[in-house]
Amino acid sequence: MRILAHLAVLLAALSVSAPAAWSLDKPTGPVILTVKGKLATPNVGETAQFDLAMLEKLAGRTGKMKTPWTEGETEFSGPLVRSVLTAAGAQGNTLLVRAINDYFATVPAEDALKHETILATRANGKLMSVRDKGPLFLIYPFDLEPGLYNEAYFSRSVWQIKEIEVKP
Amino acid sequence: MAQTLFSGDVIRKASRITAILQIFAVVLLAILVSVYVDISTRQRDMRDAVRENAMWSVYQLNRESGELVHDLQLMLSSGNLGEDRLQGLSLRYDVVFSRMDMLKKAQFEKNFAIDVQVGKHLNQIQKIIFESQPVFDAIAAGQPVSLEELQGLDGQWSRLVDSTSELLVYTNTFVSSERAKARIELEGLQRKSIVLIGLLVLSVAFLILTLQRQLRSVQAAGVSLEAMAEQLSVSYQAAEAGNRAKSQFMATMGHEIRTPLNAILGMVELLELGRLSAETSAHIRTIRRSGEALLDIINEILDYAKIEHGKLELERRPVDLQALAETCTDMMRGRAAEAGNTVTLEIAGEWHARTVLSDPTRLRQVILNFISNGVKFTQGGRVTLRMSQTRRKGGLWLRVEVQDTGIGIDEEGKAKLFQPFSQVDASISRRYGGTGLGLIICKEIIDRFGGSVGVDSTVGEGSTFWFDMPIEATEAVTSQQGEKGNAPLVALRRLRILVAEDNKVNQQVILGYLDHLGQDATLAENGALAVERAAAEPFDLILMDMQMPVMDGIEATRQVRAGGGPCRDVPVVALTANASEEDRRLCLEAGMTGFQAKPIGIAVLHRLIREVERELGDDAGLVSAAPPAAVSRPQVAAPPATPVVSAAPVTTPSVAATVSARRQEIAEILGEDGFQELLDAFFEDAVDILAGLHAMLASGERHKLDPLLHNLKGSASNIGLMDISDLSQALRHSDPSPADIDLLAQMVNAARQSLAAQDQTVAA
């Protein structure tokens, strides 16, 4: 419930400062992410759809870190999950993050709010292909919070993401 | 004794246990450290063990491979090779590709990546996937793909599914065995932990046990220490009592020795006043010197006893340093001259403060000791007293140096100098005498002043004894004549003086002195008698011995003060050989006005009388300033404490002064010897005349008095004894009483002593 309130507040704040967010642009390029669930600002039917350009315009971060899936340190960059959710006007407590192969993980919305979690579009500055776990990879800020570096968060680090479903 | 042994045993035991405890604590600490290291190593391993799940990844690869084959077979069976389907297949391939790639690159459980079987399987899987790559690259590029090509893929991919299944099974086995290994390891760790914890528990238990034992032994030690302390306290009290007895004995002995010694010295001084042959005079001088030396030694020993018992007390009163220095050098000059030495005084620079707050007696004692040492160890040389003042450490410091040109002291000697009972060597002691306490007393005194004492010396060249002490400047006081011991004795008014003294010889000495000073002295042989006499008649001054039979001086003074008789407010000066600060306090409390340590010299007595005289004089001045009616009845007008002297002449002209004027006259004509003969004759005659006068008075033949008085008047005026002459003349015209004749006799006696004293000074 608290998270819901958080998201609501976030939305309220945005509604005052940026009324443009009420009308999410329609994607012009290939859609790489679809957000489903209870949304305040859907752009295609009941869903919010994003192309690469739309995602890369959102507030994001770049972090250089070690992960169990890469050799050496890798620099990941991409929009913050919470800015994606805000853009979609999403309201809920749980995120079902689904991959191309229909694999999914349940991620608490808290992870997006409390941590600088991103949907990485690039590794070492290059767009990621499907063979390289692209197009989107949920990356926790292991560089900022070493405490996150454990199996619980590894299992939530979904790659080849195509869809996020917001659940109450 | 048994208890002491027991407590020692307990303490030794306790310290042994403490040692064991310490060793144990160290061992415990080592164990703790090793446990910690082990735990932190495990911790690091745990952190390293945070890896991706290999089983899950292999399963995913196997599943995705199955999906890929399934999709392909669907396509082949339906024969639909549409763009959408091809793209879907291509995506499936990409997913499989990424899974395979991940298995190659990701970090899995320990040993998984380096396992040979895993590597072999992975290589095979990779090979199959790479073989299909050109077909999918073509699809991605939008090129058409033939059915045959896809059918070729089906065969390869069936192998892929088999391979990934095999890897899945192998991984399961591998992970299971790894898990078993890890469990065994964990169990080992648990066992190790249990052992460590057991050891820890054991250590702590032992620690508690030993602490308990130690506590017990400490308690025992405490009890025995308490007993020891009690024993010690008893012993200390016994020792302290002994010490007190010793101190008392020392004080008593000091008194007992000093009293007869004072008597000896006093009598010698009186003897020296008389006319003596050169030989006798020399003998007498030797007696006096020896007596004085003995007195010095006794004083030193008493001082040392005081220092040893921490009873050395310092006074604080204004001291004129210049005057003090001059007095010291003056006092030592005579003795120095005997050894052919000269004593000089040097004051370096200006005085910052000439008058300071200090203890003049102790300061003089130290300086005199230094000079006296210098004089003692120097022959035909020079002893210099040097004084200077400096400002440092925010205060004023006095430095006093006594430099001699004597034998000097070697290094070894210097080390011994300030040690009690030590002289530089035994031969010194034989040659120069002394207690060897002088310097240690000086050191103690200067220590008490907060200063330091030292000596610089070169053998054969001389020594410089010095001390440095902080001083406190004070206002200069109006000069007290009493400080100047050697001031010429001014003629005194005749006062009535009550002397309370029990010692026969001391009586003689003091009475002799007072007589010499032309005073009207009355003797009381103890305190009770003194109180009686003081109640009966007025006196101008009371000299009170402290220790007397029947009633002591303090009690007597108290009674005189409380009695309200004519002597209620008369000055009472204490005389005693017991010169302690405590005595001084007691004297003042009892109402005494002054305090004089024995031996009392003639100069001191003179000063005391002068002081009383001055006070009386002031009062007399007040009286004379009063209306004439008051003067006509002086007995009423004068305060009871200051009875007016009416019978005796108000001032006695100085005997010495008038005689010396006459002497010059006569000596010019008859020569010095002639004058001396005249004097001798006069005194011989005077004795006869005075005896005659008494006899005439006793027999009532008053008419025979006049010729005798006339005779005396003539011969007295002849040699310049004007007071005797005048009194004789006055008596011729009155009716003389025996007391009058006595007064005349006293005056004659006084003149004789005064002249004898003058001769002594001339001879010296």
Count of all domains of chain A = 1
| CA-based gyration radius of chain A | 15 Å
What is the end-to-end distance of chain B?
Answer: 69 Å
How much strand of chain B? 5-15%
Q: Per the principal axes of the C-alpha atoms, what is the gross shape of chain B?
A: rod-shaped
The parts of chain B where pLDDT drops under 50 for at least 5 residues are 479-488, 618-653
In DSSP terms (H or I, runs of 4 or more residues), the helix count of chain A works out at 5
Q: Report the sheet with the most strands of chain A, covering strand number, pairing sense and barrel closure.
A: 5 strands, mixed
Number of strands of chain A: 11
Shape of chain A: globular
Give the % helix of chain B. 55-70%
- Percent range for helical residues of chain A? 10-25%
Largest sheet strand order of chain A: 2-1-11-5-6
**CATH fold category name of chain A:** Sulfite Oxidase, Chain A, domain 2
CATH class of chain A: Alpha Beta
How is the main sheet of chain B built?
7 strands, mixed
Amount of beta strand of chain A: 25-35%
- Terminal Cα separation of chain A, in Å? 9 Å
Largest interface: A-B, 19 and 19 residues
Please tell me about this protein's structure.
The complex is a heterodimer of chains A (about 170) and B (about 775). Chain A is built from five helices and eleven strands, in the order αββαββαββαββββαβ. Chain A has a single domain (about 1-165), classed as Sulfite Oxidase, Chain A, domain 2. In chain A, the strands form three sheets. A five-stranded mixed β-sheet of chain A has the order 2-1-11-5-6. Mean pLDDT of chain A is about 85; it is low at about 1-5 and about 10-20. With about 170 residues, chain A is of the alpha+beta class. Chain B is of the alpha/beta class and about 775 residues long. Chain B folds into four domains: about 1-215; about 280-475, Histidine kinase-like ATPase, C-terminal domain (Heat Shock Protein 90, 2-Layer Sandwich), CATH 3.30.565.10; about 495-635, Rossmann fold (3-Layer(aba) Sandwich), CATH 3.40.50; about 655-764, Four Helix Bundle (Hemerythrin (Met), subunit A) (Up-down Bundle). Chain B has helices at about 1-50, 55-80, 85-105, 115-140, 145-275, 280-310, 320-340, 360-375, 410-415, 425-430, 440-450, 505-515, 525-535, 555-565, 580-590, 600-625, 630, 635, 655-700, 705-720, 720-730, 740-764; strands spanning about 315-320, 340-345, 355-360, 380-390, 395-405, 450-460, 460-475, 495-500, 520-525, 540-545, 570-575, 595. In chain B, strands 1, 2, 3, 4, 5, 6 and 7 form a seven-stranded mixed β-sheet that branches. The radius of gyration of chain B is 58 Å and the shape is rod-shaped. The two termini of chain B are about 70 Å apart. The relative contact order of chain B is 0.05. The model of chain B is unreliable at about 480-490 and about 620-655 (pLDDT under 50). At the A-B interface, α5 of A face α2 and α3 of B.
